[in-house]
């Protein structure tokens, strides 16, 4: 075999092995990414739920502060105010 044909054979073999290894690596990386999908999705959903919970807590605190503020201005009691009816009904 000539030197040129040996070099060509060696390069062809190296290219074939390199292609095989790179394809195998890419498949494993894709499988790992697919496995991480549900985990990332669960984390995203938990984060979203946590944000909603924090927003609800802030609004609840704000409502309590407003209630306290307005009760100071106009205290609430359980007394029902009934208007006096001066007209006599027949």
Automatic annotation (TrEMBL):
InterPro entries: Pet117. It is found in: Mitochondrion. Pfam families: PET117 (PF15786). Residues 1-18 form the signal peptide. Keywords: Mitochondrion, Signal, Transit peptide. Belongs to the PET117 family. This is Protein Pet117p, mitochondrial. It comes from [Candida] anglica. The gene is PET117.
């Amino acid at each position: 075999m000539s030197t040129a044909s040996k070099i060509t054979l060696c390069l062809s073999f190296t290219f074939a092995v390199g292609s095989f290894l790179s394809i195998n690596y890419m498949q494993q990386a894709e499988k790992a990414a697919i496995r991480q999908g549900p985990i990332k999705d669960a984390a995203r959903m938990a984060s979203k739920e946590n944000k909603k919970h924090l927003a609800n807590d802030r609004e609840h605190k704000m409502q309590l502060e407003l209630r306290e503020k307005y009760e100071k201005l106009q205290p609430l009691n359980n007394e029902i105010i009934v208007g006096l009816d001066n007209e006599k009904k027949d």
